[in-house]
Fold this sequence. Notes:
Layout: H1 5-13, E1 23-25, E2 35-40, E3 47-48, E4 54-67, H2 75-96, E5 106-113, E6 119-123, E7 128-141
Parallel strand pairs: 1-2
Antiparallel strand pairs: 2-4, 3-4, 4-7, 5-7, 6-7
Amino acid sequence: xxxxxxxxxxxxxxxxxxxxxxxxxxxxxxxxxxxxxxxxxxxxxxxxxxxxxxxxxxxxxxxxxxxxxxxxxxxxxxxxxxxxxxxxxxxxxxxxxxxxxxxxxxxxxxxxxxxxxxxxxxxxxxxxxxxxxxxxxxxxxxx
Length: 143
């Protein structure tokens, strides 16, 4: 049976208390505070065992839209600090071993941020920008 890993990831990510708006999956509207989680293509498997089981990575991005400022009013720093809270939340979930439930045949064993800070991925002409960071789950999938 195929487990819907996207729904599991989405439901788990919605528990992040630092989200600034409702969380969407693989879609990001251009309004201040809108949040999204998006899967990122990754290798089919990290390691395959003789019995057919394998270690798999599931990479994803947390994205958010924020209004940006061309002055030193602190808005851009506040944006970065907000997204860093999301990264700290990822670290806390790893510490607690609180992972999305990928079903009986896929046991998640590791969650990690793939960078030490978020970045402004895109700045748009209307005074808003997309901030993002990447994370990866690793799980063992049975044959």
